[in-house]
Amino acid sequence: MSLTRRALTNSLLALVAVILAWVLWGRPSPAPAAPLAPLMPVKAGAVTEITIARPGRPVIRLRRQGARWRLLQPFKARAARFRVEALTDIVNARPRDRFAAPRGRLAAFGLAPPQAIVVMNHRRILIGRRRPFGDVRYVLVGHTIALVPAGIIHPRRLASDSFLSTRLLGDRIHPVAFTLPHLSVIRHDGIWHATPEPAQVSNDRVNAFVDAWRYARALSVTRYRGAPVIGRIIVHYHERGPKNAGSRHTLAIDILATHPELVLARPDQGLEYHFPQEIGKRLLAIGPHAGTS
Question: Which of 59, 71, 186, 239 is 20 to 30 Å from 202 by CA-CA measure?
Answer without folding.
Answer: 239
